[in-house]
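ARCHIVE CARD
CATEGORY: sequence design from structure
SOURCE FIELD: tokenized fold
FIELD CONTENT:
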């Protein structure tokens, strides 16, 4: 999972950050996608805070992209969020991250705000995306 994190982000979360997430039971969740050999090929981590799902990280091994891994993870995570009581989901994405923006658009996320120069290395705005009415996704 850390290898995927490092291959995917310029400011990767550290092992310690993920380990401390594991302590935050009931709030912090992480789902892994595995291939037919049981190798981890992607993951999605999120918080469930009251009726909101905050997606922190979603990444797929570069060699395994464009075959639906992220879409499968997101489908599962949003359904799990509904099961946990979430009604809406939010996340931040780099303005230039076209693949991720298209993925989230496909799942009904829309831009609701901008955090100016939120990211470093390189400095870039974050778009704040929200998806309301998550329950409408359940079962679809
Ligand atoms: C964004 C990311 C998670 C997508 O993972 P993936 O498994 O390749 O995505 P999927 O194959 O499930 O694609 C689902 C849809 O997303 C969109 N999409 C994904 N990658 C795309 C790309 N490179 N170009 C255009 N659209 C893309 C498409 O709509 C795609 O549907 P389609 O294949 O039917 O056209 C992956 O590129 C990644 O790990 N990027 C680095 C980390 C990152 O940016 N994470 C998001 C942070 S907010």
């Amino acid at each position: 999972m850390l290898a995927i994190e490092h291959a995917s982000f310029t400011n990767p979360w550290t092992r310690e950050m993920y380990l401390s997430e594991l302590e935050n039971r009931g709030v912090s969740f992480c789902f892994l996608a595995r291939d037919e050999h049981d190798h981890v090929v992607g993951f999605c981590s999120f918080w469930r805070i009251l009726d909101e799902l905050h997606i922190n990280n979603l990444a797929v091994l570069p060699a395994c992209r464009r075959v639906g891994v992220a879409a499968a993870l997101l489908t599962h995570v949003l359904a799990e969020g509904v099961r946990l009581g979430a009604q809406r989901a939010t996340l931040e994405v780099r303005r230039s991250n076209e693949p991720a923006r298209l993925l989230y658009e496909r799942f009904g996320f829309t831009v609701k705000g901008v955090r100016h120069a939120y990211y470093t290395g390189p400095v870039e705005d974050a778009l704040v995306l929200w998806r309301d009415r998550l329950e409408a996704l359940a079962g679809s």
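CARD ANNOTATION: Strands lie at 28-34, 40-49, 52-60, 88-94, 110-119, 124-131. DSSP finds four helices and six strands in the chain.
SHELF: design records, drawer C
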